[in-house]
Specification:
Elements lengths: L4 E11 L3 E10 L5 E10 L3 E8 L4 E8 L1 H5 L5 E4 L1 E4 L5 H13 L4 E10 L8 E8 L20 E6 H10 L5 H14 L8
Parallel strand pairs: 4-9
Antiparallel strand pairs: 1-2, 2-3, 4-5, 4-7, 5-6, 5-10, 8-9
Length: about 200
Amino acid sequence: MKPRIAIERIEALSQRWADLKRYTIAYTRRDGVTETLVREVHDHGHGAAVLPYDRGRGTVLLVRQFRLPPQLSGADGDMIEACAGLLDGNDPADCARREAEEELGYRVSNLRQVASCFMTPGAVTERLTLFLADYSTDAKIGGGGGHPHESEDIEVIELPFTEALAMALGGDIIDAKTVMLLLFLERQLKGSPSPRK
């Protein structure tokens, strides 16, 4: 069987914060017809995100930060999200722990992976590994907020889980990874079996 794609040309469009390349490929469709496709692909590496939950108080930790693409699309650019970051060569679990400490100011425990998925497979190479974790007020190690030298201006938000879930279901939280993590947490709290081994 002949390969489905053959890369004919790669053009570098930008290599600043991320690599942006234009690919020209010969794509063979399921009906056997081959056509030329041109696609631009954004690559800034893989990432991890974590949603910490305080079982005793029923709260979750989230962040609010400015995101230009939603603003340009007509949404509010101040997004409420689960904390996340790029792996930078680290294991996804180590990245999730690091981001929780840097962005939230908490050391998390009982870290458990619930998914590893492509968030925008039509244009972005990033694979995001999603984690749930536990935290408590005793695990606070700092103020969070990220690193100002990395242009991070992050507000830490602690909400009752039920309120955060209602915000996701009502369209007030519109970040995909955060909606997914809240739904995974709801599933775990209801005692549904984990989708992972």
